[in-house]
Design a protein that fits this description.
The complex is a heterodimer of chains A (348) and B (392). Chain A is α/β, with parallel strands linked by helices and 348 residues long. Chain A is built from twelve helices and 14 strands. Chain B is α+β, with helices and mostly antiparallel strands. In chain B, helix 6 runs antiparallel to helix 7 and helix 8 packs across helix 10. Classes of the chains: A alpha/beta (348), B alpha+beta (392). Chains A and B meet through helix 1, helix 4, helix 5, strand 9 and helix 6 of A and helix 2, helix 5, helix 11 and helix 12 of B.
Chain lengths: 348, 392
């Protein structure tokens, strides 16, 4: 009985997935990657980004995408296709993002997505790493007299986005404090900002990087402040489809290369001159030693291209997050050697 | 089987049947192909399929719910909350759209130039602006126009309107069930009274004032329960509470959230324009001779409209108005844009995101809208049949 209900319900949606047929997939375990082949054939990397979050993925008036999430896709394009600009961006809402990835509309999802167990294990996705360590916080009006989350009282109303982990964290937080609250969840970030600005809710909660970015959109940014407490862990990172381990490795090591490059002081301007460095780790990074690219069917200069065309993680962070005033302080997103928690396995 | 004989045996009717059977077979094959394809694709990607998630804890809260709900309830319960909210806003929308639509429709035919022109302007403006913009307009205009909680608009110290919603007193009943049963009993009595009155009129031409008797019953019976049934009613009036230096909130009472108000307002004002046009078409569709004949036997203008024109016009008005009711119900899914927790926002939004079960959730949501629309359709068809000309 259940089997037959399943079949009938599947019927209506089969057409959606038909689009996916023939893309991606690929046999796990083999060296062949269907996604890699298709990407080379198409000549661009299909990358899913946000609908506009300054610092992470945001388009200017001319339609050029920038941000640290965008740089992950650019790194993959540089590694696979030799040109970081060969990326096709698809802006996605929080709701659409995973379906777009599993159906093959995009091949890399770099959209400030929190890595959680259920997302990783349950719905056909694989997280390849973390490119930003974030945490959820609260923004309030300065005049409200609320200086910490301990000042929240029963009846407080909180605006946020639907379809994100913030909705769940908010509940966990208020429940643990035993505070009755009114949750107001909008589909798009712009409407959250407008409703909060109009006074519909007393506090606005989302990832702290998001709060810092959205604050600039308020009518009087100076009248608002972000509370010091962080109520959750939000490791944000790029995601790929489950089942194509070669593609998964390419995206993972494209990101790792950027972080490791910063660790060894290799950047976009000095990379090519470091080919005859004394340090074998640096030589491997710029493709002067070893045959690392062959492991995923790429040439040996793949990592050099990433560093030259996109830059190392530090350059990317400075350009998109620090210099734009979103979060000048790197906090946990500093290298492990400098007191942060950025630590990637060695490329060897 | 002998093919030649088979061909000879075909009557004309059977010949028509063969292409139809082939078409159906082809469609079935296509459907089977897609199903198998979807199943194998999902299998390849390691996506499981099933409805087990419905009984899991949802772990998200919803602003506004007609039934008891919080994050410790199941996804199935969250679905029900969303469904009830969709039905609520659709019902409110249909109610006001009908009243407003009929009024505007009749006003458009008024002899009074100002009334007719205003009605025309109303129709032309509101039906030609996309609904989503109207929803945004009412929501954000209302939010910007309404005062903060601390300077709420005060209605006689019992009801308060501010940017966080409209706060009204909550009814606190004792022995509510007795009151409720007395209401049902009153309705049953009215039903038999109406039957009896019709019988008397048909048989003996005797007029019984059913309307006044009904009003008496529906007010009198429940009122009696207060006197003898131990029923009592008190009001819980919302009270202003200070949460911090500038943050205030009304607690107690019932809060009607601005999302619901603006969505219902936008839906009914938009749909009313189409209903108004249906009403106008229906009235104009009744031949002039009918009105003149009614006038010639001395009926007043109001009586002509009520007894002669409207019963005939309704036959023309009901079918297209059914469409408008269906449209309104489906349009209520735009609620997601302004955070009204309807089924699309709660279930096809948050629940979908938390579980990642796109196929299951979207199919449930689609089936729900389908059933909702079909129920409205069935009801309206029944009403239409009742109103249709009964040939005697």
């Amino acid at each position: 009985m259940i089997k037959s209900i399943k079949t009938w319900i599947l019927v209506g949606f089969a057409s959606l997935l038909l689009v996916a047929c023939g893309q991606g997939g690929g046999g796990a375990g083999s060296k062949k990657s269907k996604t890699l082949d298709n990407t080379k054939k198409a000549g661009f990397v299909k990358c899913g980004v946000s609908q506009g979050l300054p610092g992470f993925s945001n388009a200017d008036e001319a339609g050029n995408w920038t941000g640290i999430d965008v740089d992950v896709c650019r790194a993959v394009a540089a590694a696979v296709l030799g040109d970081a600009d060969k990326v096709k961006y698809t802006p996605l809402s929080a709701k659409e993002r995973f379906t777009a990835l599993t159906s093959g509309e995009i091949d890399v999802l770099a959209r400030n997505t929190t890595w959680t167990l259920s997302r990783d294990a349950d719905i056909g996705l694989t997280f390849v790493g973390v490119n930003f360590y974030d945490g959820q916080g609260f923004m309030v009006r300065k005049a409200s007299g609320i200086n910490s989350v301990n000042d929240f009282r029963d009846g407080i109303s909180a605006c946020t986005n639907t379809g994100t982990t913030t909705e769940l964290n908010m509940r966990d937080f208020f429940n643990s404090k035993n505070i009755k609250y009114e949750p107001i969840a909008f589909e798009k970030a712009d409407e959250v900002v407008q409703a909060y600005d109009a006074g519909r809710c007393d506090t606005y909660t989302t990832d702290k990087s998001g709060l810092a970015a959205q604050r600039t959109k308020l009518s009087n940014p100076d009248e608002h402040k972000v509370l010091p407490e962080t109520i959750s862990k939000e490791p944000l990172g790029p995601v790929v489809r489950q089942g194509d381990s070669v593609w998964e490795d390419i995206v993972r090591w494209s990101l790792n290369t950027m972080i490791e490059a910063e660790e060894y002081g290799v950047n976009s301007s000095n990379a090519s001159s470091l080919k005859d460095s004394d340090n074998p780790a640096i030589k491997r990074l710029v493709g002067a030693e070893g045959e690392l690219g062959a492991a995923f069917g790429l040439d040996n200069d793949w990592s050099l291209r990433i560093i030259e065309q996109v830059g190392n993680y530090g350059e990317s962070y400075k350009k998109h997050i620090a210099d734009t005033g979103i979060l000048p302080n790197r906090g946990p997103n500093e290298l492990w050697t400098k007191g942060g928690i950025l630590y990637v396995p060695p490329a060897r | 089987m002998n093919f030649k004989n088979f061909k000879l045996n075909l009557s004309n009717k059977n010949k028509d049947l063969i292409p139809q059977i082939l078409t159906v077979l082809f469609l079935i094959l296509v459907v089977i192909y897609f199903t198998i394809n979807a199943q194998s694709n999902m299998g390849n990607r390691g996506i499981s399929f099933g409805f087990g998630f419905l009984s899991q804890e949802s772990s998200f809260d919803i602003t506004f719910s007609l039934i008891d709900y919080d994050g410790s309830h199941s996804y199935a319960r969250a679905f029900l909350v969303g469904l009830l909210n969709t039905i609520l806003v659709s019902a409110i929308g249909i109610f006001f759209a009908t009243i407003l639509g009929v009024t505007i429709g009749i006003a458009r035919l008024s002899q009074n130039y100002l009334v007719a022109k205003s009605a025309e302007w109303y129709v032309e403006i509101f039906r030609n602006i996309p609904l989503i913009l109207q929803i945004f307009f009412w929501y954000f205009a209302a939010l910007r126009a309404l005062p903060l909680t601390v300077d709420s608009i005060n209605f006689y110290d019992i009801s308060f309107l501010n940017v966080k919603g409209w706060y009204v007193p909550k009814f606190v009943w004792t022995n509510f069930s007795i009151f409720f049963y007395s209401l049902i009993f009153a309705f049953i009595l009215i039903y038999f009274l109406a039957k009896y009155a019709q019988n008397q009129r048909d048989k003996y031409g005797k007029q019984i004032p059913t309307l006044y008797l009904s009003i008496l019953l529906i007010i009198g019976l429940p009122f009696l329960t207060f006197l003898v049934g131990g029923v009592s009613l008190s009001f819980e009036i919302p009270e202003l509470t200070q949460l911090s230096k500038t943050v205030y909130v009304y607690q107690g009472g019932v809060s009607i959230i601005p999302e619901l108000i603006s969505l219902a307002l936008a839906l009914s004002m938009y749909t009313a324009t189409f209903i108004a046009e249906n009403v106008r078409a229906g009235i104009l569709g009744v031949s002039k001779g009918q009105k003149e004949a009614a006038a010639s036997i001395g009926l007043t203008k109001g009586q002509i409209l009520k007894l002669v024109v409207m019963p005939q016009a309704l036959r023309i008005i009901i079918p297209p108005t059914t469409n408008q009711y269906l449209n309104l119900t489906k349009n209520s899914s735009l609620a997601a844009a302004i955070a009204y927790p309807d089924i699309v926002l709660v279930f096809a939004g948050t629940a979908l995101m938390q579980t990642g079960r796109a196929i299951e959730i979207i199919s449930i949501t689609m089936l729900t809208y389908l059933s909702l629309s079909l129920s409205i359709s069935v009801f309206m068809n029944w009403y239409n049949k009742k109103m249709a000309i009964k040939e005697k």
